[in-house]
């Protein structure tokens, strides 16, 4: 799996490799599955998904808060996507196939560097 910086002018991409095919997804550009026969999906251009998606999310958050809607429907999929990234990172770090139970049983503390944040 490969990730690069996100945002305007940068690539944010995930490549996943499997038997006989690989998946390439992008916030800016083509998303497709390269493989043979049925393992091929032409996909399409995702345009400027990162910037446009951020704008839509901010507008929706503002709408929800100003209208008193605190249901936060994007919370669960957002947490799930972060879990997926942690799971993938751990599999790569360990260089082995792991299960979700392995990740949940791991007591490694992930330190967050907040030194660049402003109040």
Overview of the molecule:
- This protein has 3 helices and 4 strands; from the N terminus they run ββββααα.
- It has helices at residues 49-66, 75-94, 100-105; strands at 13-18, 21-26, 28-35, 41-48.
Task: Jot down its keywords.
single chain; 119 residues; 2 domains; four-stranded antiparallel beta sheet; 3 helices; 4 strands; 24% strand
Estimate the mean pLDDT confidence.
Answer: 81
The percentage of residues in β strands lies in 15-25%
Major sheet: arrangement of strands:
1-2-3-4
What is the terminal separation in angstroms? 34 Å
Number of domains: 2
What is the number of helical segments per DSSP (H or I, 4+ residues)? 3
Question: How would the global form be characterised?
Answer: extended
Number of strands: 4
Instruction: Return the structural class.
Output: alpha+beta
Spell the H/E element sequence.
EEEEHHH
Write a short abstract of this structure.
By secondary structure, the protein is of the alpha+beta class. The protein contains three helices and four strands; from the N terminus they run ββββααα.
Summarize the SSE layout with pairings:
Blueprint: E1 13-18, E2 21-26, E3 28-35, E4 41-48, H1 49-66, H2 75-94, H3 100-105
């Amino acid at each position: 799996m490969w990730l690069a910086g996100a945002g305007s002018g940068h690539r944010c991409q995930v490549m996943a490799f499997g038997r006989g095919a690989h998946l390439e997804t992008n916030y800016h550009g083509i998303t497709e599955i390269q493989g043979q026969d049925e393992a091929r999906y032409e996909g399409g251009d995702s345009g400027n998904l990162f910037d446009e998606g951020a704008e839509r999310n901010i507008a929706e958050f503002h709408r929800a808060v100003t209208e008193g809607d605190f249901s936060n429907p994007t919370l669960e999929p957002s947490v799930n996507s972060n879990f997926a990234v942690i799971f993938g990172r751990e599999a790569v770090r360990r260089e082995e196939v792991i299960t979700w139970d392995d990740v949940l049983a791991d007591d490694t503390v992930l330190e967050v560097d907040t030194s660049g944040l402003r109040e």
